[in-house]
Backbone:
């Protein structure tokens, strides 16, 4: 099946197959990519500096705007330091290029983002999935004889038991790596992510993330302990790749400022996410109720999948069906702070009718 071609027409609608549909897809959670303040920041920076830095950060591509954005992310997350990378995927690769020199054993959440699994594999570090039995896991850590590096993401892995992971890491003086790509700007009282929501200590913490989700731009980062971030700046992943384009950097700075000044967006999307998941549970869906704005619905029967897709399409809602390599197909719906209660109600109505 060919990849669908979608054309956004406003904050919550797209054109697909020459028809207009209500859109609950993607991950531009606050529609910051269409925010006029970001557009103005891009325009001004583009006129002054052009598109491309023309070098890596360690050669001729370093600029004060890069440092300003790194400092803003550091302050936003409450960490010691931050290093920018071109993408969130590259951020994970760079981090594990540092960690491969450590005498550690990696334990990763089975549902964590593929980029984390790829990064671990590329590092050559010994690794295994985190077992469900935490007591058994504790014994395995002792048997392996290395400090644990616990690796997960916050939302992709459906908000795993981060406090349990924190306890393991503190017990053995290991490291906790959390990819906050789908939590930054969304979870926690001030949108600082799952780390804020679950009050995770920064003592052994390394955060990776993306600026393409709630921030609505592009780019990635590693943030956390100053020594490790300094190591990231010495990796080939960091040193031999082009620096983030300055218009993109300026837009990310403007986006973080906007989110800081408009905390109501974060509160709004959290409340709506909890409400829709509670209603869908009442309708019979087995989904976790949390404040993350993504809703994954797995349907094994292909005929039933087509029936839901047809119902959505007939209701004027784009059927957001996801196909990833080596993963089961599923429907993924994402709320945004731009959707109205009426539009969200329309999605709930179709999904609940499907269950009847």
Residues:
């Amino acid at each position: 099946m060919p990849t669908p071609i979608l054309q956004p027409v406003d904050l919550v609608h797209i054109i697909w197959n020459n028809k207009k549909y209500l859109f609950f897809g993607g991950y531009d959670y606050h529609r910051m990519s269409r925010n006029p303040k970001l557009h103005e920041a891009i325009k001004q920076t583009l006129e002054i500096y052009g598109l491309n830095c023309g070098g890596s950060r360690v050669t001729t591509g370093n600029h004060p705007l890069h440092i300003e954005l790194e400092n803003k992310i550091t302050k936003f997350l409450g960490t010691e330091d931050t290093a920018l990378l071109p993408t969130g995927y590259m951020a994970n690769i760079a981090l594990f290029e540092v960690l491969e020199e450590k005498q550690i054993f990696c334990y990763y959440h089975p549902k964590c983002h593929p980029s984390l699994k790829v990064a671990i594999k590329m590092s050559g570090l010994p690794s295994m999935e985190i077992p469900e039995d935490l007591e058994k896991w504790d014994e395995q850590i002792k048997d392996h004889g290395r400090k644990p590096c616990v690796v997960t993401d916050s939302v992709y892995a459906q908000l795993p038991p981060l406090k349990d992971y924190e306890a393991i890491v503190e017990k053995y003086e290991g490291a906790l790596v959390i990819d906050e790509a789908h939590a930054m700007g969304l979870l926690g009282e001030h949108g600082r992510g799952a780390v804020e929501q679950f009050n995770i200590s920064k003592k052994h913490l390394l955060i990776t993330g993306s600026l393409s989700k709630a921030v609505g731009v592009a780019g990635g980062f590693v943030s956390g302990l100053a020594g490790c971030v300094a190591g990231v700046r010495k990796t080939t992943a960091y040193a031999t790749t082009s620096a983030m384009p300055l218009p993109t950097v300026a837009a990310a700075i403007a986006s973080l400022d906007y989110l800081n000044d408009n905390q109501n967006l974060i509160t709004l999307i959290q409340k709506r996410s909890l409400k829709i998941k509670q209603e869908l549970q009442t309708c019979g869906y087995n989904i976790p109720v949390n404040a993350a704005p993504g809703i994954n619905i797995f349907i094994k029967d292909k005929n039933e999948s087509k029936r839901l897709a047809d119902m959505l399409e007939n209701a004027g809602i784009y059927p957001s069906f996801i196909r990833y390599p080596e993963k089961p197909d599923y429907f993924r719906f994402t709320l945004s702070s731009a959707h109205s209660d009426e539009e969200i109600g329309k999605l709930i109505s179709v999904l609940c009718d499907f269950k009847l």
Summary: The longest strand covers residues 147-153. The radius of gyration is 21 Å.
